[in-house]
Amino acid sequence: MFRFFVAIFLLFVNFTFANLLQEAIDKAKAGSILKLPKGVYKGRIKIDKPLTIIGKEEGVIIDGLGVGTVVSITSPYVTLKNLTIQNSGSRHENLDSGIKIENSKQSEISNCIIRDSLFGIDMSTTNNSIISNNYITSKDLSLGLRGDGLRIWYSNDNIIKKNKLVKSRDMVVWYSHGNQIVENYGENNRYSLHFMYAGKNYVHNNTYKFNSVGIFFMYSKDTIATGNVIKSSLGATGMGIGLKDVSNFTLKDNTVIYNAIGVYIDRSPFEPDTNNWIENNKVLYNSEALHFHSLSENNIIKGNSIIGNIEDIVNDSRGAKTYENEIVGNYWDNYEGFDKNADNIGDTPHKVYQYADQLWVYNTDVKFFYGSPVISLLNFLAKLAPFSEPVFLMEDLKPKLKL
């Protein structure tokens, strides 16, 4: 009997915590700081005034009880720190989230754990804010049914730093400009980072591995991506970095390793009289190092190390005009020339042709035999005694001999 009353008392305490927390929020003056002791605060909360909520110690849990969004913020100058936020609803059409922040500015969400929530942080029309050092994971669903770990929507000039997204769906940056996305980590997601209609963002020193796609930029411009590591994108179409219809981009000092496609370029640069700069990257041990699709010219591809890939250049559409890109000063591990004057520049250009072994590029049925001895033999014979004119893809006029 005593245990029964203790259980009832604890249940009552846990349920009243949420009421007490919302009551405290409602009664607090704008600008107040609420420091929460360890405990489970059950139920959803809403913050509609400048306010700071801090967990005084580990184990401060706000539990949404599986309904809707756990924490809703509709005010500027809100700070959440050192909290565990869990158990949102499961409705995609409502964007049920651990934290939803909208119409805000100069807010901060840091050092929080967001788990068992369909969407992690849903951030819209929120500017000049900080999202840092959070651990975010979705509900235990198949990849396509999870929500986005971090969704940045019409939000500008924010700092997104040192967050860890694991087993979520995507991190998306759509219609959002001037954001700094630095030192984040993504694992076992779909798109670790996906941009659309976004400009002047800075993407630096992030690490993404075991995702379907590392970083994909679409319909965007004026962005710098530097120092990122994209590793082991999953599946036959797993991609490191993708550029689609983007202009005035800089990809520099990134490492792209163990992917099906290293760097994918589709109709980029998109705007007339613009360039993209792909410089000093390490593109290593991918099935395809650089994959061109559709008309893609005026990229400047310079100083990259292209090593250990099965194919260095793939052009899957005959109108891509791969040769109209400025490709110069790269290191190619399969360059077959000499350097008689020892200036570390090959005496002859490094030329890449498409031979019979790339029939699979235009016929997916042939791809079944990709890498097989039969295709390798076809390639050898095509080079030894061509039975058709090989397709010229590109040349590097000044290939490096040493790294």
Automatic annotation (TrEMBL):
NCBIfam families: NosD_copper_fam. Pfam families: NosD. Transmembrane segments: none annotated. SMART domains: PbH1. This is Nitrous oxide reductase family maturation protein NosD. InterPro entries: NosD_copper_fam (IPR026464), NosD_dom (IPR007742), PbH1 (IPR006626), Pectin_lyas_fold (IPR012334), Pectin_lyase_fold/virulence (IPR011050). It comes from the Bacteria. Residues 132-337 form the Periplasmic copper-binding protein NosD beta helix domain. It comes from Arcobacter arenosus.
